[in-house]
Amino acid sequence: MDVSDLKKNAKLEIDGTPWVVTDFQFVKPGKGQGLYKCKIKNMLTGAVIDRTYRSGEKLTAANVESKKMQYLFSSPDSFTFMDNETYEQIELAHDVVGDAKFFLLDNIQCDVLLYNERPVGVSLPSHIIMEITECEPGVKGDTATNVTKTAQVETGKEIQVPLFIKLGERIKIDTRTGEYVERVNK
Amino acid sequence: MSRRPLSDRVQAWDQALQAVRAYFRGQGLCEVLTPVRLPEVAIEPYIEPVRAQGGLLATSPELPMKRLLCEGAADIFQVAPVFRAAERGRLHSEGFHLIEWYRRDSDERDVRADVERLIDAVFVALGRAPLEGWSSAAFLPLLESTTSIRLRGDENAAELEEAVPSQWRVQPPEGIPASARDLYAWSALLTSWSDAALDPWLEAQAGGVHIVDYPPALAALAQLGAARAGEGVAARRFESYVGGIELSNGYHELRDAAEQRRRFETVAALRRGHGAPPLPMPESFLSALDRPGLPACAGAALGFERLLMLASGAGALADISLGMD
């Protein structure tokens, strides 16, 4: 691809790694070359770096696609997902799933990222709702949210919640930060 | 800074357009509107025309306006819609307007004076104080004072490579032929310098700044000559900046058809080298330059939206745009 095709969310392949353009600025002095000042994110590690390209440079588009899949079950070695369209099942290794494993509720819908047709990552909905499976008893009437206690949710993940949260209640969690957002009333 | 309410934007455009027209009419120039879809445009190294059903949308009205001059038109101006593919940013848009004008029997200093008066006229029309004066800086001395790089102005690509700091060295695309290497090297130097030192320097200047006396490789469509008796040859070209933002580019216009053809060919070779789509040689324009010929004249172009943005105190073209998307 030509550098002039750059835009936000363009996927680039650099040294065998897929990167996504998260931000870019176009500047151009007079009749000189344009500069495309990009922030690019490594799609495998999440690392963000600055890269500047000039008019006339050629880039390689990364063969990256994202497919809607449903999480089915896990085994000691892998997590199994099903493609929503083809019903084909694929297995993702633990290191590919990473911290997303803490939010993999049965049958949850995810975007599985494929790089050169190989699964390289899972992105979850930004918020999910989970049930509290273990915690200290709730403190009635204490609606403060800045004092917290540790609770466990159904996937086994530990999370800091306000004191008023009780066993069996459902809470909304931000999967990007792993933090409690709010209590969900039944 | 954010987008202005629509009623403010509409009013600002109206006031600015009135001020531009009043200025040029007061100077005795005639307003024209030249065709927007053209068979040929000036071949530029890094400006891509938008293609439109067998034609090209104007990247500037320069060639059709010069052809009017060749045919005997008097001093003319227009506010022309122009299009440049893939230029999108805070200060760039793929479609915008150029205020472009030509004065016969004039040189670049005359149209530079127009730039100063025109900007003040629009600033005042939008209720802003005129600029605190203008200064001029010649390209090479300014390069030296902002970077300590000292150049004569006629260096070839290999000599430039030697002279610039290592982080400015850019590997030219492989396909660039020998005939276009110097143009490539000077264009790359301009870009690196702007990014590293020139833009910050320009942003720090209180008034307007004209950069003058460009190296011959960056002459574009300007004549070469000594700006003052006893000085070396430079391109009679200028660019004008306010608050670090490039507003205008002007020339003492090149009239030599053979030299103009050589320059277009060099640019076309550079474009082939970096894989830009080929553009037709502007044969009709070259033919008019040859005969009847372009009268001695100077011209300049000034970005209307950027001027309006500065005069409105806005920070991005989008803040003053009348585009509804």
Question: Keywords for this structure?
Answer:
heterodimer; A: 186 residues; mainly beta; SH3 type barrels; OB fold (Dihydrolipoamide Acetyltransferase, E2P); 3 domains; 5-stranded antiparallel sheet; 1 helix; 14 strands; B: 325 residues; alpha+beta; BirA Bifunctional Protein, domain 2; 9-stranded mixed sheet; 10 helices; 12 strands; 40% helix; 20% strand
Walk me through the structure:
The complex is a heterodimer of chains A (186) and B (325). With 186 residues, chain A is mainly beta. Chain A folds into 3 domains: 3-61, SH3 type barrels (Roll), CATH 2.30.30.30; 64-123, OB fold (Dihydrolipoamide Acetyltransferase, E2P) (Beta Barrel), CATH 2.40.50; 127-184, OB fold (Dihydrolipoamide Acetyltransferase, E2P) (Beta Barrel). Helix content of chain A is 2%, strand content 52%. Chain A has one helix at residues 94-97, and strands at residues 11-14, 17-27, 35-42, 48-54, 64-74, 78-83, 89-93, 109-115, 118-123, 127-135, 148-153, 158-162, 170-174, 179-184. In chain A, the strands form 3 sheets. Chain A has a 5-stranded antiparallel β-sheet with strand order 7-6-5-8-9. In chain A, strands 12-11-10-13-14 form a 5-stranded antiparallel β-sheet, with no helix packed on it. Chain A is flat and about 70 Å long. Chain A starts with 10 loop residues before the first strand and ends with a strand. The mean pLDDT of chain A is 90. By secondary structure, chain B is an alpha+beta fold. Chain B has one domain (6-319): Bira Bifunctional Protein, Domain 2 (BirA Bifunctional Protein, domain 2). In chain B, helix 2 packs parallel to helix 8 (283-293) and helix 7 (257-273) packs antiparallel against helix 8 (283-293). Chain B is globular. At the A-B interface, strand 2 of A face helix 6 of B.
